[in-house]
Automatic annotation (TrEMBL):
One Pfam family named in its UniProt record: DLH
Gene Ontology MF term list: hydrolase activity
Chain ranges passing through the membrane: none
UniProt source species: Ceyx cyanopectus (Indigo-banded kingfisher)
Protein name in the entry: Carboxymethylenebutenolidase homolog
Amino acid sequence: QMADPFLYNSGERSKYGCLGDEVQIEHIMAYVCRPSFFTDKAVIVIHDIFGWLFPDIRYIVDFIAGHGFIAICPDFFKGTEPWKTTDHWADFADWMKHHDPMKVDKEADVVLKYLKEQCGAKKIGVTGFSWGGMAAHHLMLKNPQLMAGVSLYGRIIRDSEERYNLLNPTFFIFGEKDHTISFDQITLLDEKLKQYCKVAYKIKVYPGQVHGFAQLKPEDMKPDDKPYIEEARKDMID
């Protein structure tokens, strides 16, 4: 049996009333939430395979806005279907071919332009979860406009040494019990970054946590996991 590639329990979730707005930016839709005061700091939030409409990711956007950033989650799937919990894992590889986390540059540029020209943002970072963690890692290698990045449990793709030449400070968050990312991969990432990375980076593994742990809304958390989820989110904001 193949391990489910990005599966985490996306089962029962409490309802969530979003605080932000949906906007159309050129060819993509995006969910935006702003703090109550003016700020020139913004964060692009990259969703996982469940897409930009998933309540958990909207909660994260609102959470980041609550910490004083303009937060925006664009639809990186450009109107196509996200992965659904009812889909079959046998089709996942094929779905991934059409949803490549390394092909987010054009959308990132569109959103960066919007943040700078329409929102007055001057300092912009990126954070991504799972599929989005891979995309955030990719963008931190390619886009010098992003001043800081946080990649949460993005699978580590080892296609070349340039995977490690980050342009700006990047923080990698992993769960100890994530069955999609082995500890060996994390160790190798650390070794390679030591060797090739010229900017500050950090890797942190949170005890007992599974894939997708940092996205849960408070009422969906298990008491044992809550301190680690809160710590990971505080680390992300910091």
